Amino acid sequence: MWIAPPYGGIFLKRIGFMTGGGDCAGINAFLAACIRRGTAGYGLEFVGIRRAFEGGCADRIEDFLLPLTASDAVGLEREPSTILESSRLFPWSEANKAAGLPEKLRANLQKAGIDAILATGGNDTIKSTKHLAEMGIPAIAAPKSIDNDVTGTDTMLGFKTAIAFGAGAVRSTVESSKTHRRISLVEIMGREAGWLALEIGIAGGADVILILEKPLDLARVCARIAEINKRQGYANIVVAEGARLLPTDPVLQAVQEKDPVVKALTGEDLGKDAHGNPKLGGVGQILRRIIRHQLGLKKIEDVRATDLGFTLRGLAPAADDVVLGTRFGYAAVDLLMSGQSGFMVGLQSTRIVKVPFETALIQKQIDWSEGDLRNAGVAW
User: Of these residues, 23, 115, 124, 147, which one is catalytic?
Assistant: First the structure.
């Protein structure tokens, strides 16, 4: 129950952590900063809920609790991924609501003596945290996504580290394609936003970048790749996993008739995740075969395809993510203890700001001008 004390904050004692969705660098830096600020500044107690909402909805929540003290925060900011594990369970899906999971979650938090929640996550976890706040459980979130796709913040935990590692990986394929005079294609994560592919492509030296914000005209894209390959003897391509191949594209239709692998891959339904998002992956293998057919290459090996996938997640944080996680952690605790709930902390320019969950959940996509995109090597 929220009661305003004289200093204008709220009576909170035990704070729970949840780290949901895909793991990434910077989460542990956020946890460490929250613990330091909360224990020294407010006398708070902290407990991590392992596996986020899955742990919170478990039959025995006590099996998923990890008490965290000031000594546990020492050096934690340098650790990769999240010490609390993760899951994508959404208690407010129709099936889970019918099974009573929201009520079970509330009862479990009360049973564990948890007064409020500090969460890290992307769109899906922020959506779940918003439901918590609407149930009357004080909640603040920090944005975490290597896709950089949460609105209200210039960047978020994990993005800078993933860019640094991904750029190095792409640069390696660039050098190899020069050596062997061939075409290299690297697939990068990015379900609803192409920021990761765009910035990794630029920093890694890609000749062509394909993003999901621009549906692909395969004839035009392949003509661009052919021109580069002819001029310099090799070509390097970076593609976001969510890049859109239009079913009506005549090049795609022609290759589907010739190549059973492309027909099978484009017709495959990978299903949906716990939040109803379509599962992605495999566009690199499809494009590899399309490029081979369009350019008349003799062997499939003439186009090498690499999928960086989860190599971008479990990384030790770069300094940028340690700093950002630390700033987010201090701000989140102060915001919570000022009596506020239902907000995400974000970075705008150089300032840490609070962003309503409703605003944060607006899908953030690349908003560069077409001229800037073309100058960067984006094709469509």
Answer: 147
Give me the number of domains the chain comprises: 2
pLDDT attached to residue 275: 66
Range of the domain at 343: 14-157+317-360
Confidence of residue 4 (pLDDT cuts 50, 70, 90): very low
pLDDT bracket for residue 234 (50, 70, 90): very high
- Is residue 221 in a domain? yes
Locate the DSSP E strands across 73-206. 116-121, 139-143, 183-188
Q: What is the CATH number of the domain that holds 78?
A: 3.40.50.450
Say whether pTM exceeds 0.85.
Answer: yes
Known active-site residue 147 = yes
Same-domain check for residues 326 and 285: no
Per-residue pLDDT of 91-139, as tens digits, reads 999 999 999 999 999 999 999 999 999 999 999 999 999 999 999 999 9
Same structural domain, 193 and 272: yes
